[in-house]
Specification:
The structure holds two protein chains of two kinds. Chain A has five helices and ten strands. By secondary structure, chain A is of the alpha+beta class. In chain A, the strands form four sheets. A four-stranded mixed sheet of chain A has the order 1-8-7-10. In chain A, strands 2-9 form a two-stranded antiparallel sheet. The longest helix of chain A is centred in the middle third of the chain and has 26 residues. Chain A is globular and about 80 Å long. A six-stranded antiparallel sheet of chain B has the order 4-5-2-1-3-6. In chain B, helix 1 packs across helix 2 and helix 1 runs parallel beside helix 3. Chain B is elongated, with a radius of gyration of 30 Å.
């Protein structure tokens, strides 16, 4: 089965990178997390209740909502800041992508996992010269992320494929049960940064154009 | 597959709680504060849809009052309207959230207990997310008794989108197919945050203001102006427009100056049969201090552009052609000197001089083509060098 894949492309200032990714990932995880399953002796279970928290961004004009779970937030924060540090580092080109991948496992061994939904954020960093530009960018990125959040809710309400509710013994093949407050579907975060070789300059492109035109 | 009585009852109950919880989510998101509810391992009686949504008693009572104890699914659409009221009493509807039912699109196979219930939970999560990103959210975070407050109103009717001004947007948050039809949750929201004379209802103040724009009509009689402006000026938010007398077409000026600043197409207006109940101030819900009854029974929530504009200074507006014209021809609050930097700049842009290159160009007949060709020929060596360097440069880009 092919995994559903959504790709968001954003151009942001370096300091906005963490919040831009977090707002998208947390909105997705809020929809993809259930209350904790509580099993009784007969094998039936009750589902806990998910709480939610408003998060104001510091560098983007945006408020988003996430599950009230400090440990889930910490996991996401850690992954995103590893990505953002490399993206903003001197070696990179300021272009990279980070994915939130939901998967299910066939067996208890970690190797055999099937992804069923992937959310990718592609970032390109820009440098701004003054406070005026920063102000504009802060609003613009807020508007862009608003569109992305609306799109996420649209996708969530299409009611596409979700893994079947497992029995108690197979719960860990579908859900991540390590968080004390919520029970998200199993997920992992991957990222990659573009190398510097991909860059082209106007000069070299012009040379190439002339050469090709003259068939040299 | 026909729905059993028990299933129908259950579905009605779910729909009712979907509406109750939606109202709580919407109103609480407009209180002006950040919210946080904890996760709970054990679900209790009021924790519907496995989502921890607080129940504010005032909001719950208000919602139940509107529902009137009847079966909700047969009375949809159900709307929650969010509006803004300034300290001066001016009023502007910001958004209409609507839960509706499309009976023609039903899914008889949907298993009510699990599927519908779980999907309602997802829909409410989406609602929580969307309430934070519509423009009214940022406004609500800035409200205060000295500037403006946010109010809500619940009603059972089609959403009154004509109150949202020109260019309002609609977003479908989600839908759930059930055996009785498709439940749909959507929001329509205002995008233009200034109250223009279009939305205002105080006829007198409008006419006074209109004189300011009316520079071309200085010599026209007063009655003519009234007629033309009456035509372009549309109704206030809650006016029954059927009672609006239409002016004699012969009296209408062919092209009223700056009509676009006032005009609003009639297609946006729908008659509203129902009288409107009072809005509830969310600040009052929060503090529970006083019951607010609005003094808008007399007809229109009236507003002038000045008061609201000053309140909403920080809101950005997309510049339009009309704005440009306003700058050019003495905007109401602009400085009146024609020598101001901005107007000079605009004038220079409008009438940019042609390029010197083209002015000095001699007629085609006088061009000395022979000389040009000679000079090209003498530079031949240089061209050869460029081509050679291109050939020698590496191929990758």
């Amino acid at each position: 089965m092919n995994a559903r894949s959504q790709i968001f492309e954003l151009t942001v200032e370096g300091r906005q990178a963490d919040e831009a990714v977090a707002s998208i990932f947390h909105t997705v995880l809020f929809h993809r997390s259930l209350g904790k399953f509580l099993y009784n002796n007969e094998g039936s279970y009750s589902v806990g209740t998910v709480g939610y928290t408003d998060v104001d961004c510091d560098f983007i004009d945006l408020t988003y909502v996430c599950c009230t779970s400090a440990s889930l937030d910490q996991t996401i924060k850690k992954e995103i800041s590893c990505f953002s540090e490399q993206l903003r580092g001197n070696e990179g080109t300021g272009i990279g992508q980070i994915s939130l991948e939901f998967f299910s496992k066939e067996t208890k061994s970690m190797q055999e996992c099937t992804p069923w939904e992937v959310w990718t954020v592609r970032l390109e960093l820009i440098t701004l010269n003054n406070e005026g530009e920063r102000q504009v960018c802060q609003e613009k990125v807020g508007e862009l992320l608003t569109d992305k959040i609306l799109y996420i809710t649209e996708v969530m309400n299409r009611h596409d494929y979700l893994p079947k509710m497992p029995s108690q013994s197979e719960l860990d093949l579908i859900f991540d049960t390590s968080y004390p407050e919520v029970q998200p579907y199993l997920f992992k975060v991957n990222y990659s940064i573009s190398g510097p070789s991909a860059g082209t300059s106007v000069g070299s492109t012009m040379k190439k154009l002339i050469k090709e035109t003259l068939a040299l | 597959m026909k729905l059993s009585n028990q299933e129908k009852k259950e579905l009605d109950k779910f729909t009712k709680f979907l509406a109750l919880k939606s109202t709580q989510i919407i109103v609480q998101s407009r209180l002006g504060e950040k919210l946080s509810t904890p996760c709970k391992p054990h679900t209790t009686g009021t924790d519907w849809f496995n989502l921890n949504i607080k129940d504010l008693p005032e909001v719950l009572a208000e919602t139940k009052k509107v529902m009137n104890g009847e079966v909700l699914s047969s009375r949809l659409p159900f709307c929650v309207e969010i509006s803004l009221r300034t300290a001066e009493g001016d009023h502007m509807v910001l958004e209409s959230w609507c839960l509706s039912l499309l009976p023609e699109r039903c899914d008889p196979t949907a298993r009510i207990v699990h599927t519908v219930y779980n999907r309602m939970g997802i829909l409410l999560k989406s609602l929580v997310s969307v309430t934070r990103v519509t423009p009214a959210y940022k406004l609500s975070r800035r409200q205060g008794p000295d500037s403006f407050v946010i109010c809500y109103r619940i009603y059972m009717d089609e959403p009154q989108v004509h109150c949202l001004g020109e260019g309002y947007k609609q977003v479908h948050i989600g839908q759930i197919c059930t055996p009785i039809g498709t439940l749909q949750l959507s929001v329509s929201y205002r995008t233009k945050m200034t109250i223009s004379p279009t939305q205002a209802g105080r006829g007198d103040s409008m006419l006074v203001k209109s004189d300011h724009f009316n520079t071309n009509l200085g010599s026209k009689s007063k009655s003519d102006e009234k007629t033309s402006l009456y035509d372009t000026m549309k109704l206030g938010a809650f006016v029954d427009y059927k009672k609006m007398p239409m002016p004699d077409p012969q009296l209408i000026l062919p092209s009223p100056p700056f009509a676009k600043l006032f005009a609003k197409t009639k297609s946006h207006r729908k008659p509203s049969e129902e009288s409107l109940p009072d809005s509830v101030n969310v600040e009052d819900v929060k503090s529970s201090q006083e019951e607010v009854k609005e003094e808008e029974k007399n007809g229109n929530p009236a507003a002038t552009s000045t008061t609201l504009e000053s309140r909403l200074q920080s809101l950005t507006m997309t510049p339009t052609k009309e704005d440009f014209i306003m700058v050019e021809l003495k905007a109401p609050f602009a400085s009146t000197t024609a020598k101001s930097d901005l107007s000079r700049f605009l004038r220079e842009c409008q009438a940019a001089p042609s390029l010197q290159t083209f002015i000095d160009l001699p007629p085609l007949g006088e061009l000395q083509i022979d000389k040009q060709l000679e000079s090209f020929e003498s530079d031949l060596n240089e061209y050869d060098t460029v081509v050679q360097s291109l050939c020698q440069s590496p191929n990758n880009n």
